[in-house]
Design brief:
10-stranded mixed β-sheet, alpha/beta, 4 helices, globular
Length: 216
């Protein structure tokens, strides 16, 4: 599943993006758990890799300095309670790393889920996530969740207009026709990597809804 997902990303991301798997390190001697997909900047700090490539030579495997990363991604074929807890634990280990410039965005990408489908399915996924991550309302272990056929969730920190207080927003796009939630996820990733905004080409801003607002 990891190779298939990396291949999907490779088609849309700029050439400066490298894809790998392995552990992430910081300069203070800490290491993350094994991460399924690591998206790193080839033009930034080069990864300190073992030099091992997979058979199609598209992904490198080894250790990566946290400063060189854009994304750390957990991939699940079918999301259930155990797989979710595993993803939270792995991304928590990435969150605890200390970077001198920026921390990678922590993402969960799943191809399906064991929750029963309904019109509220992405909200049900969010309720399950809240039970798995005690920091969901302050500093979530996972900042982006995309489940194919379910929807797309992401965290945003902002200042509330009416009182200028800092808030954490969980926003979502529910499942759309033609898997628009996946396209929106890819657009969000490209926005982060390139600094350009592609969202308006894919969907109207009203498609994004606030699921939860927490005052910090």
């Amino acid at each position: 599943m990891e190779e298939m997902t990396s291949d999907l990303f490779t088609r849309y991301f700029p050439n400066r993006c490298g894809f790998g798997k392995g552990q992430i390190q910081d300069s203070f001697g800490s290491e993350s758990k094994e991460v399924d997909i690591i998206v790193f900047d080839r033009d930034s700090i080069p990864p300190v890799c073992h030099g091992i490539k997979n058979r199609n030579e598209k992904r490198v495997e080894g250790f990566f300095p946290v400063e060189s990363l854009w994304y750390a991604i957990e991939v699940k074929k079918s999301l259930n309670n155990n797989e979710l807890r595993d993803a939270v634990e792995n991304m928590e280990s990435v969150k605890n790393l200390r970077s001198h410039i920026k921390n990678p965005v922590r993402m969960l990408f799943a191809y399906s889920s064991n929750l029963i489908d309904s019109d509220m399915n992405i909200k049900k996924e969010f309720e399950r996530y809240k039970k798995a991550d005690s920091g969901w309302n302050k500093n979530p272990a996972i900042q982006v969740i995309c489940i194919i056929g379910k929807g797309y969730l992401f965290v945003q920190f902002a200042k509330r207009n009416r009182d200028n207080k800092r808030v954490l927003l969980w926003k979502y796009i529910k499942d759309q026709t033609n898997y628009l939630e996946v396209a929106c996820c890819l657009a969000g990733m490209i926005n982060t990597i390139t600094g350009q905004v592609f969202d308006p080409y894919l969907f109207d801003e009203s498609t994004i809804q606030i699921l939860e607002e927490i005052e910090l």
